[in-house]
Amino acid sequence: MxxxxxxxxxxxxxxxxxxxxxxxxxxxxxxxxxxxxxxxxKYLPQKRFVVLVAAHNEERVIGPLIExxxxxxxxxxxxxxxVIADNCTDQTAxxxxxxxxxxxxxxxxxxxxKGYAIRWMLERLKEIHADYDAVVMFDAxxxxxxNFLRAMxxxxxxxxxxxxxxxxxxxxxxxWVSISMAISYWYTNRMWQLSRHHLKLASALGGTGLCIDMSxxxxxxxxxxxxxxxxxxxxxxxxxxxxxxxxxxxxxxxxKPITLLASLRxxxxxxxxxxxxxxxxxxPLFGASVKEGNLAKMDAAIYxxxxxxxxxxxxxxxxxxxxxxxxxxxxxxxxxxxxPTWFWVAINVFILIQMPLAMWLERxxxxxxxxxxxxxxxxxxxxPVTLVALxxxxxxxxxxxxxxxxxxxxxxxxx
Length: 415
Known about the structure:
By secondary structure, the protein is α/β, with parallel strands linked by helices. It contains 16 helices and eight strands. The protein has helices at about 5-30, 60-70, 90-100, 115-125, 150-155, 175-200, 215-220, 230-240, 260-290, 295-305, 310-325, 335, 340-360, 375-380, 380-390, 410-415, and strands spanning about 50-55, 80-85, 100-105, 135-140, 145, 160-170, 210-215, 245-255. Strands 3-2-1-4-7-6-8-5 form an eight-stranded mixed β-sheet, with helices on both faces. Helix 8 packs antiparallel against helix 10 (about 295-305), helix 9 (about 260-290) crosses helix 15 and helix 11 runs antiparallel to helix 13 (about 340-360). The termini are far apart.
């Protein structure tokens, strides 16, 4: 056996160990997402919220969101809605004012993007000595379940400091791309977020539907200004021993692109930001998890290693094909048999079965199941996105995703 073959064998051995452990880990943890008991409201409204909506040229969708926010099942004197009109060249500010929001217009040649806009607004609130117990963040294209603030009030009263709401899609049936994203979200909400909540692990932050205790925010400051400010802030919280919790009953509906090209651009930005956060936080979290025997930090490090479901599907799928087509006489085949083909097939089957299972458990519209045959094709598109992001991970130029679906909450209720 020559040096090249030995190195190749070693690489495949390491790949099998990593992907095998992660695959089995995810399958085991997902079992804890099979059961859900709806949380009952325990406390009367007490916490005072500042609701922040960062918006860049969102005149088409900002109106329905603000209208929706005024319908919250929460006293109007206990929350204010601020819209950050960030470098807008349309009527976003005017529409937001007409709907009753407090509008702060920001213009900056540099430091563009949602993370910078949020930091700027938080600094303005500090300057005017605004008195709020917590900050809630939404995107301009969102719609929000009317129980959202009640749910966040309950979590804060229980002592939780960072809470992530349930992320749903407001336009799942617009195209095969949007329904594929919706299937991913339903799976993640149920088999990833809920299961980790049951196990007292840290929830992953999703960039919207996020609630943060104001005293914690003042202590930490807002330094999350990268392409994925949610991943960045979440990693920082976990590294400091603050574990975000999951509020399955508090839904936020997000608009997703309907064309493949727009989706590729959005996901490329996500992956670029994810790689940057992994570089900064993954190894410190891993080291701390080993030193402290802390599963929550280990789980957060694994999440940063790469979005787990995509890593498992691609690498284990590759292992299956490799073991099937490499002849038994090959010197490499001896190594690939470390974990047998049936193991890789079982992992993939378990994960793929979880997609429709999560949809059934979440009681999604029956038409959504029609998207399942095309879902594997959508999953394959993650490979070029992740590959390009790896080589362009130093890019920090924020790209705006255009939103046009001015859906109202009543439209969602009638689906």
